[in-house]
Amino acid sequence: MALQDLGAEVRRLRETTDPAAIGLPAGRRRARGVRREELAELAGVSADHVRRLEQGRRHPSAAVVNAIARALRVGPAEYERLCALAGYAAADGRVPREAGAAAMRLLERFPGTPAFLTDAAWNVVAVNGAWMALGAGRSNRVARDWNVAWRTFSNAHREISRGDDHAAAFRATLATRLHSTFLRYPGDEPLAELVDELRTTSRSFDVLWRAPKAVAAYDDRAVFRHPGLGDIALDGTLLDVPGDNLQAVVFTAAPGSGDAGRLGEAVRASAGPAIIRVGQPGPG
């Protein structure tokens, strides 16, 4: 009975959703609501999957439930009902954005290593002094500037460059992780706004969004253009901070290299604070 009830609810939501309200062309339609094929494309599943689900012949994963809720932009009450019918607990409404003491210690204990913390939507929540010493955040003016995905796909990271292979891998990592976050937090409106803007303004993001790539181990190499010391090439490492649902990005130089020397000089010349907490971010 539960599967039939879930299927009926999915069909009801699909048929009562205004296509224009979820970004689809309105036009003349033979039937009301959203077509099954349209819902399937938005949710990243097949039309047959949706059909079998509506007929009560398919039990969806939690990710599919979240994807359907996100695609139809259902409200909190409807989302909770969908999850209950599917036998899952509803995900928290918004992406956690607070950095706890353990996460902040990660920045504090490596004063000579450029590092920053982001939430699961790639909003930077804190940076250390070594990161600021590189001059990487000197052009940030508004909240959106502190979103790594936005700055990357809008080509606003003018002080940071990557080779073609590393740039492609970095973009794939950003899009894939953001896609997972999007499915996990269907009630986060700022996250939805960020994704909508990225898909509208960046064709490369939209391509990655429609077909997320399996991401291998994170292996980044970036060149920072320091205003006084020139180029500093650093290797990037991505660390998950599970308790706070955050991620840390840390950059290091090969010991004894010229890049390590220039990095050390930049850090020693910096008079900024050891840690900077970034203001509560908006949609990017």
From TrEMBL:
It comes from Lentzea albida. This is Helix-turn-helix domain-containing protein. Residues 29-79 form the HTH cro/C1-type domain. SUPFAM superfamilies: lambda repressor-like DNA-binding domains. GO terms for molecular function: DNA binding. InterPro entries: Cro/C1-type_HTH (IPR001387), Lambda_DNA-bd_dom_sf (IPR010982), MLTR_LBD (IPR041413). It holds the Pfam family MLTR_LBD. It comes from the Bacteria.
